[in-house]
Specification:
The protein is an alpha+beta fold. Helix content is about 40%, strand content about 30%. The protein contains five helices and six strands, in the order H-E-E-E-E-H-E-H-E-H-H. Strands 1-2-3-4-6-5 form a six-stranded antiparallel beta sheet. Pfam families: YjbR.
Length: about 110
């Protein structure tokens, strides 16, 4: 998946806005970040630690915990090379649901 496709997919999720955080582009819902694009070929998603553990076990070649405290809280890098589009889409939707206001997440059952 190309960066432009990832941006388009992120902005299609209800309530999503693009912004910047520590010099990297980010995508937020309800002013909470669910994904950043720190560099070409990589996205960083907001997962729970349990979601992160599961993903690292099933997709070790394309995912890695962010170093330090952020990674301990579930922030996970996903490298586009080797990742299929469905994995990227599911990761983005999971991260979005993790931070979206409950009423918005329930309302968007089709995402």
């Amino acid at each position: 998946m190309l960066t432009a496709e990832i941006e388009k997919l992120a902005l299609s999720l209800p309530g999503t806005q693009e912004n910047a955080h520590f010099g990297a582009r980010d995508f937020r819902v309800g002013n909470r970040i669910f994904m950043t694009l720190p560099e070409a070929g990589r996205a960083v998603f907001k997962f729970t630690p349990d979601q992160q553990r599961m993903l690292l076990e099933t997709e070790p070649g394309v995912c890695a915990a962010v170093p330090g405290g952020w990674g301990a809280r579930g922030w996970t890098s996903l490298y586009f090379v080797g990742a299929d589009n469905e994995l990227v889409r599911q990761s983005m939707e999971t991260a979005w649901r993790n931070v979206a206001p409950r009423r918005l997440a329930i309302k968007s059952g089709d995402h």
